[in-house]
Amino acid sequence: MGKTRDLFNKMRDTKGTFHAKMSSIKDRNGKDLTEAEDVKKRWQEYTEELYKKDLHDPDNHYGVITHLEPDILECEVKWALESITTNKASGGDGISVEPFQILRDDAVKVLHSICQKIWKTQQWPQDWKRSVFIPIPKKGNAKECSNYCTIALISHASKVMLKILQAKLQQYLNCELPDVQAGFRKGRGTKDQTANILWIMEKAREFQKNIYFCLIDCAKAFDCVDH
């Protein structure tokens, strides 16, 4: 335990690195694309459509926060930087998190200045908007983009700002989310609902009552949420 990475590194050294090749993919009309540049453009088109969403809703004012938040503090930047997991792939800028953590205070000052500028101007840096997408095949036709799970590698510097924003938003979300929601909540889990279902089933048998369940499997649920 704790040395899984060393084990996989030794296995990789023994077996060598395997690079899977994607020979072809289908376009939106079902036509096979075999040229590398065409395949690349199709993936770009697919991911842009997948995450393209107009989030502006002038009629939705529920939960709008009208008061101003305080400026971002250096201690928040330091906390966010230290909480980022090491030994992770870098984003489009090719910079891993380790150099930031080695520089420590100097890196915190630079990142704090950047985060403060973003906070006040509400403008996200262009470099931070670029992601490297890694398609991982799932079940089904391997030529269909929809049959892949896309993992996005983003800039580690942007993760600092994202963690700060997440922490600030979490304070409000905990008050807004219903108590019955257990998934995607700290200290909670879907096992809570599983226990409740088992308890309901036991009571239904005891009192000889019929029970009905509706289970919904949402395709690409995470991708469809307004981020």
Describe the protein.
The chain is mainly alpha-helical. It has three domains: about 1-55, no CATH class; about 70-175, no CATH class; about 180-215. About 45% of the residues lie in helices and about 5% in strands. It is built from nine helices and four strands; from the N terminus they run αββαααααββααα. Strands 1-2 form a two-stranded antiparallel sheet. It has a two-stranded antiparallel sheet with strand order 3-4. A hairpin with a 5-residue loop joins β1 (about 25) and β2 (about 30-35). The two termini are about 35 Å apart. The mean pLDDT is about 85.
Summarize the structure.
47% of the residues lie in helices and 7% in strands. The protein is mainly alpha-helical and 227 residues long. The model has no long low-confidence stretch (mean pLDDT 83).
What labels describe this entry?
single chain; mainly alpha; 9 helices; 47% helix
Count of runs of 4 or more consecutive helical residues: 9
Ends distance: 36 Å
Name the beta content range. 5-15%
Shape: extended
Write the layout of secondary structure elements.
Layout: H1 4-15, E1 25-26, E2 32-33, H2 36-51, H3 74-83, H4 98-103, H5 105-121, H6 126-129, E3 132-137, E4 148-153, H7 156-176, H8 191-206, H9 221-224
Antiparallel strand pairs: 1-2, 3-4
Helix pairs in contact: 3-5, 3-7
